[in-house]
Amino acid sequence: MDLTRRGLLGLAAGAGLVLAGCSATSPTTGSPSASASAPGASAKVTIGLTYIPNIQFVPFYWADAKGLFTASGVNASLRHHGSSEALFTALASGQEDFVVAGADEMLQARSQGMDLVAIAQYYRQYPVVGIVKDGSAIKTAADLKGRTVGVPGKYGESWFALLVLLKSAGLTEADVKVSEIGYTQQAALSTDKVDAIMGFSNNDVVTFTAAGIAVRTIPLTTGTLPLVSASLITTRTFLDASPAVAKKVADACTAGFVAVAKDPAAAVTLATDYITTLRTDAAARAGAATTLAATVPLWKDASGVVNPTLDAAQFAAMETFMREQGLIAVPVDPAAAMSNRYHS
């Protein structure tokens, strides 16, 4: 499994609309992790954000800029990963104390020996969907049989999502032609190199629309989805050593999501301090606002609120699905992979 290219947010250099030029560093990016603090001092933590600065990380920028971390007694640094950094290596090495990543990818890492734990869920709706041209004869997942489906590669959330989509229609990988197209989804679909792609509803669909290409989406399943996306993840070692700090971090991050969901326009303005392109490029700023509008619904549960609570049953279903699909080589205890003890 190649964890160096993430599926978390569907971000890639060729994606276009929002990503071009978003290479600025956060005012708090890059500080090394230092969990231990002097008596009475704020606990120092580093939170890993698994891509370059982008509007989809704005809840963390909000928590930073509005002092939500410091108000809870935490001195937090935000650390953006580069384009080739693996998801969990900085966490495992102690360079980071927390990372925002897919819980499904975390479960895969646990199967490889990393003692990681998800403590708050932020994407309540899985962001990956099947995408076809609006005029395509493909209407349902079953219609993919015999068709070519483009994915960045056989890894990450796009790949996991395709396996769910196929299973929901009673299909297997053998029933379709999988084309590993890298991060060229728009070009591949628009030129009919593939019949469908797996993409992100809050990124790929947005860029297609901005380019004037009419597309439709195909949901992964009509049942319960056996995957959990973006979550706040740390190590069991950190939780055992600093449980109160973990709760403060999770609650401050959740407060950032709640605030951004209430006022996305203010969040885009705030993001200009972290993504310099948005200060001077009106098109990039408009694109960021569109992407955020498509992202906020993914944070909300069925009742329409931001809810960080992890679902033990969904984790159990995820472990079963990933093991049956060969995504994890050994059984993983799903109960040990998550905890709701560290958020309000």
Count of helical regions = 13
What global shape is seen? globular
* Helix content bin: 25-40%
- Poorly predicted ranges: 1-38
Estimated structural class:
alpha/beta
The separation of the N and C termini measures: 34 Å
Structure description:
This protein has about 350 residues and is of the alpha/beta class. It is about 35% helix and about 15% strand. The chain has 13 helices and 10 strands. The strands form 2 sheets. A 5-stranded mixed beta sheet has the order 2-1-3-10-4. Strands 7-6-8-5-9 form a 5-stranded mixed beta sheet, with helices on both faces. Helix 5 (about 155-170) links the parallel strand 6 (about 150) and strand 7 (about 175-180). Helix 1 (about 60-65) packs across helix 9 (about 245-260) and helix 1 (about 60-65) packs across helix 10 (about 265-270). The longest helix has 20 residues, at about 245-260. The protein is globular, with a radius of gyration of 19 Å. The protein starts with about 40 loop residues before the first strand and ends in a 20-residue tail after the last helix. Residues about 1-40 have low confidence and may be disordered.
